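2 proteins. here.
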Amino acid sequence: MRKKHLLLIIVLFVLLTSFAPSKAMATSWAYPFVVWDGYIYVISEDEYVTEIGDKIGQVTRHSDMEQYSGNFSNAYKKGTIYYSIEGVSTDEAIAIEESGGRNIKAYREGEYEIRSVFGEIVKVFIFSILGILAVILVYKILRTIVAKGNHYH
């Protein structure tokens, strides 16, 4: 009887965890961006800046598949320079150096948050355990109800 319970638990665990991503999820980006000072700046489509201010940073990591911390970009290669824009707060926008000496405007959208694959795995594990516990609880309740029903006959 214990082997049946163990088998049931293993089967349920496998079923529940099969819904987890089998590989670290590739990130799909809705738009090109850079990260500077913990904030994400979305690249404008064709708004170029001529009055640039000081150099404020540069892309330290580039990937179009994964997220990274620091001055990260999904569109620009490592070393691409960020500038402040004269008369515009960096809380609003910055300029990004492009080839040909042009600088494109990027608007600050909000704080940059990295999605953790580890966090996703932990969630799946917790839900799997809760699912198994729920099945065990239902099984025990049903077994108790059936046992009580047999006593009355």
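next one coming up
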Amino acid sequence: MSESTSTPSARVVYQANQPMLQSVQSVRNMLHHTARQYVGQKVQVQNIDGQVWEGVILSADRGILYLQVTPMHGYPEPRALFGPTILPLVLYELLVITLLM
């Protein structure tokens, strides 16, 4: 991370070290490149906490994967007031992206 700009009344309680920062940036960039290759494709996505979604990749931008979700396992289709649900998923929290046929 860049050098902190602490003020006398503010105290940094966490700051990533340089190797951690480089690792997270590397994973984010790799997943961004990979996700953009599959825009418009149906996928299953699992994050590091074990949550799973199915849907279509709409885009990947600035560390976020936008997934238009589809119904899974007998649950009704998730819908917002005016259309389908789009989940913004943080790229560096994704564990698996599986292309579905």
